[in-house]
Amino acid sequence: MFRFSPSVRRLLPVLLLGLLILQGCGRFTPHLPREFVYVWARGTYLRDRVAAVSNRVAEVSNGQRLQVVEHGRRFLKVKTDRGEIGWIEDHSVIDQQTYDKFTQLAKENGNTPVVGTAVLRDDYWLRDAPGRTSDRFYLLPENDKLQLLKRASVPKPEPPQALPIPLEKPVSRTNADNPPAPPPPNLEDYWLIRDTSGHVGWVRARTLDEDVPDNIAGLAEGQRIVGAYVLKKVTDPDANVPGNEVPEYVAFLSPWKDGLPYDFDQVRVFTWNTKKHRYETAYRERNLAGYLPVSVTEASSANQEVPTFSFRVAASDQVALDPQTGTVNPGDTVTETFSMDGVVVHREGAAPPRTTTTSAPSHRHAKPHRKHR
Predict the structure, then answer these.
(1) Comparing C-alpha atoms, which of 63, 373, 23, 37 is closest to residue 218?
(2) pLDDT digits over 150-206, tens only?
(3) What are phi and psi of 137, to 5 degrees?
(4) Rounded to whole angstroms, how far apart are CA atoms 63 and 280?
(5) Whole-angstrom distance, CA of residue 254 vs CA of residue 282
(6) Is the peptide bond prior to 237 cis by the omega test (within 30 degrees of 0)?
(7) pTM of the full structure
């Protein structure tokens, strides 16, 4: 049997004590926090190595969380919740800080009132701020129904080929002292939206279609209907609608133009003619500087309540867009309320002072107007 020398036997207790101390100290060594990234790409694969030829380890999809194992050059080694480990390109994911921005947006706007609804034309990524250069994450599917919360207008980036070529012109002393003002930037609209899963973010307005009833969509006369609400229903036995109950609407319209400092500039009430079986315009008012949301009380068939609607309009000329956020800053506003008796629309109280838009001739005291389809 092997025997230790006396000198070695004297050192064994010291060595054992040192090992125990080292083992105990390891229990108090602080562990580095785990790092996570989130997939923003539509779908991609984890690979077993960073090389021109590699094998697929696992498939990951938009919104999936991954734990970072190792950092490489333009690649990350990550681990899925199922324990699959592989490499992914770093431009296919967002970091925790960017993910927290979307979480904060959802938290801050959990109770923000809905000003309208819209349908997405095609797949689109939610962004953390209005603009094409902001970070994107959640991929919304085509035909997804969205709640509209807030609108913002930001400068539209110009493509490089559209940049004007500078021309050398002689500069007079007068022009040098008073240079011409630069042209205003082209603006494009974005909507802060909330989807059915509770995700909140910004979507370009041109990718949305406002949720408008099909039976009045053709009555917009070149305008965009930003909201349409049922005031009451009338019975028409010859109408091809469920229960022969035809809805009558109040609609709010705006020009097809981005960057407007108001949400709508026209209000129309559509009533149903039970003899001619068609919609007609019972009331119209143009040249408004109006703002969403609007308030509508639908008539009850049980007790014959009178339908009403109200909306806010600018009361001063301080209508503008916030230069920092691009959101609409209406300044002072007044609320106008209307009621409907049969097919006649009445204003509740006197018309308050307000500002008007310049996009159309003024019709501040518009008379009831009828126009069929």
Answers:
(1) 373
(2) 999 999 887 766 556 565 556 565 555 666 667 777 899 999 999 999 999 999 999
(3) -145, -85
(4) 48
(5) 19
(6) no
(7) 0.78
In single-letter form, the type of residue at position 115 comes to V
Q: How far apart are CA 138 and CA 102, in angstroms?
A: 9
Number of H helices and E strands in the chain, helices first, is 4, 24
What are residue 60's DSSP bridge partners? 44
Q: CA-to-CA distance for 66 and 59, rounded, in angstroms?
A: 12
CA distance 242 to 186: 45
| Site of tokens 């004590």 | 17
Please give the Cα distance from 156 to 154 (Å, whole number). 6
Q: What is the pLDDT of residues 311-334, one digit of tens each?
A: 999 988 777 777 778 887 787 899
- Structural domains in the chain plus CATH codes: 36-94 (2.30.30.40), 98-156+186-208 (2.30.30), 212-347 (no CATH)
In total, the chain counts a number of residues equal to 373
Helices (H), 167-318: 173-177, 214-217
